[in-house]
Amino acid sequence: MPSMDGSGHAQSGWERDYDLDDPTKEDARARAKAKLDAIRSGRVVLQPAGRYWGRVFGGFLTAVIAAGFLYGAYLAASEGDDTAIYVAWFVGIIGALLFIPVYRLLYGSRATTPFRALNLYYRLLGGGKHKGARKLVVPNDFDHFPRAFPHIGKVKGFPGAEWLFFNQPADYKDYWESMLRWPTSPYCIARVHALNVEELAPDVVRCDFTLKLGIGTSLWILLIFFGPGIILAFILDAATRTNITARMSKVLVKVDDEWQLFNGAWHEADEQSTSWI
User: I need a labelling partner for 141 at 20 to 30 A (CA). Which of 108, 121, 224, 226 fits?
Assistant: First the structure.
């Protein structure tokens, strides 16, 4: 029979092993080694996350808009006069450029490369899609290991508990919402840059990259209903947005033809040193 923790949550043997009051860096690295051993031995079965259809739908809509611009360019060019030709070129270039986000949305809808896995993960979290983000993390990371909220100076939110436990979806959500979505009516724009991938094993890589976050409130959009308010909305949004740039290291594991994060937290001891692999 599984034991119960203080909240009445049933704990497996794995969770009891890591139900610690104040874990050290050595505890975190020992846990990481045990997690990887469990995956490689087949005791923990990994499943690919699959395609994220929200991004596919967004790519389809963008493609329709791009096609509309190109058709408009064709109609303008058919007029034959010089002004119409200039308009056709302008509209056609916009339509052509719109196929760049179409490509990124469609090919970025699955975590088939480390970059796509990381980009998907942080964008899903930034959009408040925690259930989808969890699919991009190895399942045995969601145990009863205590997670401390990271110290990031510009973050104004803070979770309601000193320690959070990712085996409880509400704690996982609280952890990331407090970091990325703390304003009223929040948005978070997440981008991964300057990625360097180091192969640690045939099925494991370490990724060093720059994570850029733009966190703000979408309430300024209400100003578009007041005359030239759209310009003011852009100005106020840019002025009040919190921008965070952090150099990160994450370990990723190969899952069929996809990649998953080995640790779903911000940045922890097992990612600072990978000597446990």
Answer: 108
